[in-house]
Design goal:
This protein is α+β, with helices and mostly antiparallel strands and about 180 residues long. The chain has 4 helices and 9 strands. Strands 8-7-6-5-9 form a 5-stranded antiparallel β-sheet, with helices on both faces. The protein has a two-stranded antiparallel ribbon with strand order 1-2. It is globular and about 40 Å long.
Amino acid sequence: MNNLLKRSLTAYDEIFMNVTDDYVVDCSNNLRVDDYLGSRAHLAAMAFAEVSGLSLGAFVDRRPADPKAASLLSTRVEHAFCRLHSTANYCLDARGPRSERDLFDEYCANTAQVQELGDHEALALIELQMREGVLAHYLKGERQHLEHHFLQMKAIGLLQINALVVSPGMLYEDELSPPGL
């Protein structure tokens, strides 16, 4: 399994750093962070919630593609994430902490009937859509790699507010030691 290094981080805002989109989360299945920003986001969110106890959340489009098929299976999951308990309006996806507003703008800007689902409702919808083949299932070993990815983000301080203050040269110091330690 990969270990997060400083060269795998980028500045997100004045509070948080993020993992770069090309960072390999699951080398056995060749899955990178950017794979978990689209059609596999629900898998990262579920794994993170399971290992951490964080609440699951999802932005969904309730407008069915086919009006005759107005059901939970036609509800499109735009993005799934976890809510960070210690921060107001910050969420967690495969990149690390992001503001809820930025996630909404990125994934729902062109969605007319978007709704945010909370923990139990989001999980129920995701599990239903996985059973019905609408959303992807975990590949062999993928869940363990995602859990490791979460634990790596936590170990280097990415999940603590103000733990990683962006400073000039931070990403160019010793590449083998975790940032903030």
